[in-house]
């Protein structure tokens, strides 16, 4: 077993009287791809936001390697935990290349030449090298999301979080984004992916975690969870999703 790179321990998150996450315990090992599945409102996005400290847990801890994430060290550790959102959040006044080079220059202290060299390599990796000088408004949604993935990779994070990366895309654009994420998985990237794409989860994830009502109801390999789910809630969810 590879080392645990990310550990969520007893995580609880509430907004007022609304309990969104309850006692979440989850370990991610280096090089592992873990898919979070569950209905909308099950807590997938909130869990990712707590892992990246965009939300502060009500109780419980998140550890990156041997460090507990706190408000004091969040900026340092967040460099190691990249995140790709549902919406692309690209700067509209910057080209694709500039969107990718901005953070490495400011955060990592790279020269413009170094950052541009790396950014062009990343654009080639996501098959957008010809779009380096295009602005976000000149790109399709799938292309914008691929730029967002390249931007997250530019800080060389140890872990990548994906929050429903295809949910804002037209159906015909979903495949190109999933293909890029699949290639990252083959490279051995450590990833935690919230997704509604069940076929993708089966093909790419090492482990699938089913959330319901803010709790982990069941987890296992894709074969275990999709072919022989043990919990009634998991069975109901998969029957509804897979029989559409």
Radius of gyration: 18 Å
Give the mean pLDDT: 93
Strand numbers in spatial order across the main sheet: 6-7-8-3-9-10
Principal-axis shape: globular
**CATH fold-level topology of the largest domain:** Rossmann fold
Number of domains: 2
Derived from helix and strand composition plus strand pairing, the structural class reads: alpha/beta
CATH class of the largest domain: Alpha Beta
Order of helices and strands: EEEHEEHEHHHEHEHEEHH
Indicate the percent of residues in helices: 25-40%
Total strands: 10
Uncertain runs are: none
Strand content: 25-35%
Cα(first) to Cα(last) distance is: 37 Å
Fourth CATH level, the homologous superfamily of the largest domain:
P-loop containing nucleotide triphosphate hydrolases
Biggest beta-sheet profile: 6 strands, mixed
* CATH architecture descriptor text of the largest domain: 3-Layer(aba) Sandwich
Q: What is the tally of helical segments? A: 9
In short:
By secondary structure, this protein is an alpha/beta fold.
Task: Note down, in words, how this protein is organized.
By secondary structure, the chain is of the alpha/beta class. It has two domains: 30-57 and 70-80 and 157-244, Rossmann fold, CATH 3.40.50; 90-156, no CATH class. Helix content is 38%, strand content 26%. It is built from nine helices and ten strands. The chain has helices spanning 44-51, 74-78, 96-107, 112-125, 141-153, 171-186, 198-204, 222-227, 232-242, and strands spanning 4-15, 18-29, 33-37, 59-64, 67-68, 81-84, 159-163, 190-194, 207-212, 215-220. Helix 3 (96-107) packs parallel to helix 5. The model has no long low-confidence stretch (mean pLDDT 93).
């Amino acid at each position: 077993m590879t080392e645990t790179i990310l550990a969520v321990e007893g995580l609880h998150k509430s907004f007022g009287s609304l309990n969104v996450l309850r006692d979440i315990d989850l370990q991610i090992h280096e090089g592992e791809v873990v898919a979070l599945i569950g209905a909308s409102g099950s807590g997938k996005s909130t869990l990712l936001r707590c892992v990246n400290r965009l939300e502060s847990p009500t109780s419980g801890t998140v550890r990156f390697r041997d460090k507990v994430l706190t408000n004091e060290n969040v900026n340092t550790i967040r460099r190691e935990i990249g995140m790709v959102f549902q919406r692309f959040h690209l700067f509209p006044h910057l080209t694709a290349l500039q969107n990718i080079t901005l953070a490495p220059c400011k955060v990592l202290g790279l020269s413009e030449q170094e950052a541009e060299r790396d950014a062009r390599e990343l654009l080639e990796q996501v098959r957008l090298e010809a779009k380096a000088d295009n602005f976000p408004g000149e790109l399709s949604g799938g292309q914008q999301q691929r730029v967002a993935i390249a931007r997250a990779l530019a800080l060389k994070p140890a872990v990548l979080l994906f929050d429903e990366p295809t949910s804002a895309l037209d159906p015909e654009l979903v495949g190109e984004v999933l293909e890029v994420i699949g290639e990252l998985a083959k490279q051995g990237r450590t990833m935690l992916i919230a997704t509604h794409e069940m076929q993708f989860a089966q093909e790419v994830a090492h482990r699938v975690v089913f959330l319901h009502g803010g709790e982990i109801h069941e987890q296992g390999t894709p074969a275990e969870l999709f072919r022989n789910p043990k919990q009634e809630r998991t069975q109901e969810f998969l029957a509804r999703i897979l029989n559409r």
